Amino acid sequence: MSSIKTDELFDILRAACARQFGFNPRRISAGMRYVGKEGHGKDVVHVFRDAATHSQVALKNTFATLREKAGDKPHWTEAEKAHYKSGDAEIDAEIAAKQAELD
Q1: Residue 84 in contact with residue 28, Cβ under 8 Å?
Q2: DSSP state of 69
Q3: Cβ 53 vs Cβ 96: under 8 Å
């Protein structure tokens, strides 16, 4: 898939997750990776996965669905949802802390 199409899907994902779950768009940009399409015909969804926890979000048109389970493993704990809802100040503090470790 072209990078332009992937960027468009990420724009839709950020808007859908902010609207539906209150997730911070910056956290979506930093934490999610595009996996690919699943399904056929009108049932096609685009799947995104958290880089660290492998929790997944399915995007169909402009509607996002958190996949609460993958097989028999639970995903999207309350702590993980809270992590994605963190504000810009918390994200900036994390970045500053990581930068301080590197310096």
Answers
A1: yes
A2: E
A3: no
